[in-house]
Write a structure and sequence with these properties.
The protein is an all-alpha fold. It has 24 helices and no strands.
Length: about 575
């Protein structure tokens, strides 16, 4: 039998069609359930068991453990999930990914999907033309689902026919009878294939196909499945390579969890696969050790059993796994990174832009990070107005407060540019009205944040320098008013940080109510100051000018904070059906 270059290209094209179908189906499901997934990840991971069920549910829904794991790494990177919660979700994802194997085993080999795949593509195409988002996404789901099985059928048709040409297997046969050495060899093959294809589901499909066609026996296929469990962890580790230390820890925990599972399974490998063969016969099938056609279902049973038992065994050891990865990857205090000399984003993940529901969450978290940096700038800038020396920066004592503010301003300008660019890229995706409102709202919020940073850096810092050069000081009453008003606006900044965390409309309303009170307070302070000036209680015209300008600038900061609160309030009104104004 000849198997030429054209046949190899056909095989690769069939694999590409299978992968494309899986991607279209997964992306459509992500669009259908993206917002719900975001809320589930945020709310349903309060303990390790709920986290496991969350990972199982999400992976079953979107049919991609790699997508779930990447999502988890992104959310840990964005501080939306703790490391303990992330490990639980990853355990559930390992179980959820076994559903793909069952779909292929039952529908791919037991049912003639090719007979209904093309009609489904046609029906899906009609749905995809709908103006309603839900119908359109269901249309793409049907197209992806059908193309996946069309690709699988092409794979089945394009592999070499070994029934009439058994010599094709001769090179494999010499490696299947080496005991545990053969197991380790096929484990390595499974790992390498998954690394190359970057999809454990696709590698699983190939493995099922090879067993169904009689290429490899059941035990070697089971070894390949173990290798696929190791190979699938590489995707998350690659994604975490450029992320923060928490994301690296989550990806490393995934690798450790799967490696531990493979180790204990290798110790019990032959008794375990014998048990799987016994269960397969008891369920009404044939022995996978005797009949090639029985292997796909038995292999799916092995895949599910292994991942379920592994999760059950190790779920109680999540704290220990977390401690191990924390030792392997030392943490860096957030404050030190916040004001680092080299600006960098923490949470923006380019790979998630095609999944707007999650990308919006990441942008929101980066904006929340901006608010923390600005809060430090605002907290620090009052020092030169209340003391006669510039003071030391809270993070880097070698710098003055004013130098620290300048460093943070560079960071804010950098983050504003990156966040807005990220949001613009999200805006180019296919978005629902609600998502579009969120994108516009966050662009507005990021701009307000940057304006606050400019007020502090470009106006308050030079004013602080001028204050330090004065020979006289504020009156006792005047200094108390500056401190009080600054504290009120700083408290508003703190409330805003809380509001940004969940885009909380209740906290936004509170900020707006407080702003009205603080406007009255600022007016009252201004009147008192003028009265002191007339009574000649203020020590100099210079301190008077600095006092008035300081109050004006802090008031401008308060106005921008109120603008952000209005945007948060309006975007939540937009969710209820009203038009968002940004």
């Amino acid at each position: 039998m000849t198997y030429g270059f054209t046949d190899i290209l056909t095989l690769l094209g069939s694999l590409a069609l299978f992968l494309y179908g899986m991607k279209v189906m997964s992306d459509a499901l992500m669009e259908l359930a993206g917002d719900k997934m975001r809320k589930i990840l945020a709310a349903a991971t309060s303990n390790r068991f709920l986290a496991l069920l969350t990972g199982l549910f999400i992976t079953t829904a979107i049919q991609s453990s790699s997508a779930t794991t990447l999502m988890v790494v992104s959310f840990v990177n964005a501080s939306l999930l703790t490391l303990t919660e992330a490990v639980g979700v990853i355990m559930g994802a390992n179980i959820g990914t076994t559903v793909t194997a069952w779909l292929i085993s039952i529908l791919g080999f037991k049912v003639k999907m090719s007979a209904i795949a093309l009609p489904l593509v046609g029906f899906g195409f009609l749905l995809s033309l709908s103006k309603l988002d839900q119908r359109r996404h269901w249309g793409f789901f049907l197209i992806g689902f059908s193309v996946l099985f069309i690709g699988l059928q092409f794979l089945k048709d394009s592999v070499p026919d070994i029934k009439d040409n058994p010599e094709i297997l001769s090179f494999l046969q010499q490696y299947t009878n080496l005991g545990y050495l053969s197991v380790l060899l096929f484990l390595a093959i499974g790992t390498i294939l998954t690394l190359i294809i970057q999809s454990s589901s696709a590698t699983m499909a190939l493995t099922l196909l090879m067993t169904h066609e009689g290429w490899i026996p059941f035990d070697m296929a089971a070894a390949m499945v173990l290798g696929e469990n190791i190979g699938t962890t590489i995707t998350a580790n690659l994604a975490a390579f450029v992320a923060n230390f928490n994301a690296k820890r989550a990806a490393r925990a995934h690798l450790i969890f799967n490696l531990l599972g493979v180790v204990w399974m290798l110790l019990l490998f032959y008794p375990f696969i014998q048990m799987i063969g016994y269960v397969a016969i008891k369920l009404g099938g044939q022995s996978p050790f005797l009949t090639a056609a029985a292997i796909p279902v038995a292999l799916s049973l092995f895949h599910t059993g292994f991942n379920f038992i592994n999760s059950a065994l190790l779920i109680g050891f999540i704290p220990q796994i977390v401690r191990v990865v924390e030792r392997l990857i030392p943490g860096v205090p957030e404050e030190e990174i916040e004001v680092g000399l080299v600006p960098a984003t923490w949470h923006l993940d380019e790979s998630q832009i095609s999944h707007p529901a999650f990308a919006i969450e990441l942008a929101q978290t980066e904006i929340s990070r901006m608010s923390k940096i600005i809060a430090r700038m605002l907290r620090a800038v009052v020092h030169p107005f209340t003391f006669d020396e510039p003071g030391e920066d809270e993070i880097y004592p070698k710098l003055t407060i004013l130098e620290g503010i300048e460093m943070r301003e560079e960071k804010i300008d950098f983050l504003d540019e990156k966040v807005v660019d990220y949001l613009v890229q999200i805006g180019r995706q296919e978005l629902s009205n609600k998502q579009m409102s969120e994108v516009y709202a966050m662009i507005s919020i990021a701009n307000d944040m940057e304006n606050i940073g400019d007020i502090i850096h470009r106006n308050l810092v030079p004013l602080a320098t001028k204050r330090l050069q004065l020979e006289s000081d504020f009156s006792k009453e005047g200094k108390a008013e500056l401190i009080t008003y600054h504290e009120k606006v700083s408290k508003q900044m703190s409330r805003l940080r809380d509001a940004l965390g969940e885009m909380d409309p209740a906290m936004a309303k509170k900020i707006l109510r407080k702003e009205e009170k603080y406007e009255i307070l600022e007016s009252d302070f201004r009147i008192r100051h003028v009265k002191r000036l007339h009574a000649e209680k203020e020590k100099s015209i210079e301190t008077h000018e600095v006092h008035v300008e300081f109050m004006d600038l802090i008031k401008q900061v308060g106005v921008h904070l109120a603008n952000i609160a209005k945007t948060i309030k309006e975007v939540n009104v937009g969710e209820e059906g009203s038009e968002l104004e940004v």
